[in-house]
Structures are given as structure tokens and as C-alpha cells.
Design a protein that fits this description.
alpha+beta, four-stranded antiparallel sheet, 19 strands, binds FE2/S2 (inorganic) cluster
């Protein structure tokens, strides 16, 4: 239950956790989904986070078996799963960059519409969404973290094919550590030549990050502080941009919406009730804890007494 916040290098490597614990090792594998270390490597300039959605459908029809994915857009995938005495059908699809795009509930609604078009739906007992790290040439980064850090390894960028790419990554890293080589290293190496060939995509991707960074800083702040239960809004507390969420009991939770990774402004994710970063995909809870990296530090959280005081003044 510890979050790694730093790696120090002396004769060996020492990883430091958020609760001050230390672990020393000769070799380290960074397999934290989005790499939690910014430098060296600068993976934040080469990976973006992309979200996907699934709804679990109880249908009148019996599922015919098999797994399916559409060739056309928008992508939809189908598979089934035993559920109590029957089965549920998992309808997957929809995608967007984390922290960017329309109200996230619309993605669930699109999958639900698809389910109603193709099945006699009796119930939709579950829904969930997730995100994965996408690389610019669609292959994962597996191997030495950088050429200068031969004993730090990385496995990331599974491009939504985690069940297969994680197995491939484990095989490559095992070979690299025990034999010093892997037959697939040329294709997967984080410093492969095709990464350089993706320079145009790299520039486009980072221009998008810069756009989101600036957009977040200059977008208008709402001065309408009427927030319904279960809803959130970007507002201002004591001259500072802040995100306010009112829970089902009417209690207000206010956080500083400046991402602790590199300072982009967070966006509200209405479907998952989280604050999501449009730059590299960090996600935070309504009380500011890190849900997903690369951020490792929580958001500044305004406690309720401060809020009450501010509400009686100018909030
Ligand atoms: Fe990088 Fe937020 S995740 S700035």
C-alpha cells in the first residue's frame, strides 16, 4: 500500500515511498502503468492516456459464444461472462483522451444505445471505465528505462492490449535481466528508431498538452456557485481556481484543480466523479487523493471548516 515518489541512485537504487519507506535493489522495474518518474526518460512526452468504457448487459437472448470486435468505427466489442445462474454480455467501446471531450456519461449512453439496438435488454447491472497508456507508434515501451540507466527497466504503453502486451513484457524483461538480451528488444525498446520516426506525432501530441495547459489557465471560471447534489463545478476560492463537488448528502468537497504532476488544470469527470488531467491522464478523487498517475502527490484539499468560513465571506 505504498506509492513510490522517487528513485535515488548510489551504488544501488533506492526507491522512496510516500510514507518515507525505502527499498534498495540492484535492478528496478517501473511497471506502474504510466511511469511515475519524470526524469530521466521524459515518458510524459511520448505517452498519452486514453479512456474506454464497458457496460454489462443482462439480455433475454442467449449469447452465441465467442469474442467480437468491430472493424469499423466507432469500435464496439462483445463477449460474455457467467453471472449468478445466467450470463451477462460485456459491451465495450468508446474512447477519448483522459480529461478531454464531452460529458463522460455520454460514452456510457452510447454503449447502452448499442446494447438496446442488438439485444432485448433486461438489465444493465454494471458499468465501468478505465484508461491505458498509448504510444505514438502503437507498440509498448519495454526494456531499459533509458540508455543511461541500464538497471532500471520499464514496461508501459500497452495500447489497450494489456492482457497480451503484459505477458510479452514479462518475457522480454525476464530475458533482459537473466540473459542480458531479448529477441524482441528491437521492436519494443523504448529507444527504438521508430520512436524517432514518430517525431511528427510527438510534436502534435505535445502541442495538444501545451494547448490544454494554456486552455485550463485561461478558461472562464464560473461565478455561479449553485451546485446540485452529485454535481461539480470549477469555481474560485480566495482568488484561487478550485474544483467544488457537492456529494449526495449536500457536503461540499473542494480541491485545488492544479495537477500536481506538471500543473495542468483538471477537468471534472461526471461519470466517475473524479478530477482528471487532460495533459498526461492523472486522476484524483473528490478529496484529492491520486487515483492514477503519473502524478504522485495528492491535490491540496480545502477542509470543510475553511469552506464554511469562506462561504460566509465571499464564496
Ligand atoms: Fe501531467 Fe497532469 S498528468 S500535468
Amino acid at each position: 500500500q505504498s506509492r513510490i515518489v522517487r528513485i535515488e541512485e548510489n551504488e544501488k537504487y533506492t526507491i522512496i515511498s510516500n510514507n518515507g519507506k525505502k527499498v534498495t535493489a540492484e535492478k528496478i522495474i517501473i511497471a506502474s502503468h504510466y511511469p511515475c518518474i519524470n526524469k530521466p526518460g521524459f515518458y510524459f512526452g511520448r505517452i498519452y492516456a486514453d479512456r474506454s468504457y464497458v457496460v454489462a448487459v443482462k439480455a433475454k437472448e442467449k449469447y452465441p459464444g465467442g469474442m467480437y470486435i468491430t472493424a469499423e468505427n466507432p469500435t464496439r466489442s462483445l463477449r460474455n461472462q457467467n453471472y449468478n445462474d445466467g450470463e451477462i454480455i460485456l459491451v465495450g467501446g468508446e474512447r477519448h483522451k483522459t480529461g478531454q471531450g464531452v460529458d463522460t456519461n455520454e460514452h456510457y449512453n452510447a454503449l447502452i444505445d448499442f446494447a438496446y439496438e442488438h439485444f432485448t435488454v433486461e438489465d444493465i447491472p454494471y458499468r465501468w471505465s478505465t484508461q491505458d497508456c498509448m504510444t505514438l507508434d502503437s507498440l509498448p515501451f519495454v526494456g531499459q528505462f533509458t540508455a543511461e540507466t541500464p538497471n532500471i527497466y520499464v514496461a508501459t504503453g500497452y495500447n489497450k492490449w494489456g492482457m497480451t502486451n503484459s505477458i510479452a513484457s514479462a518475457m522480454i524483461l525476464t530475458d533482459l535481466i537473466t540473459k542480458g538480451e531479448s529477441p524482441w528488444l528491437d521492436a519494443y525498446s523504448p529507444s527504438r528508431s521508430t520512436v524517432m520516426a514518430s517525431a511528427k506525432s510527438f510534436i502534435v501530441e505535445n502541442a495538444n498538452v501545451a494547448k490544454e495547459l494554456i486552455k485550463g489557465k485561461v478558461s472562464p471560471i464560473s461565478d455561479d456557485i449553485e451546485i446540485a447534489n452529485g454535481d461539480a463545478q470549477i469555481t474560485e476560492v480566495n482568488g484561487q481556481r478550485a474544483g467544488a463537488y457537492r456529494d449526495e448528502n449536500g457536503q461540499l468537497h473542494v480541491v485545488d484543480t492544479t495537477c500536481t504532476h506538471m500543473g495542468c488544470e483538471l477537468q471534472w469527470n461526471a461519470a466517475e466523479r473524479s478530477w482528471d488531467c487532460p495533459c498526461h491522464g492523472s486522476r484524483f478523487s473528490i478529496t484529492g487523493e491520486v487515483i492514477e498517475g503519473p502524478a504522485v502527490e495528492p491535490l491540496e484539499f480545502q477542509d470543510i471548516n475553511t469552506i464554511k468560513k469562506l462561504m460566509t465571506e465571499d464564496f
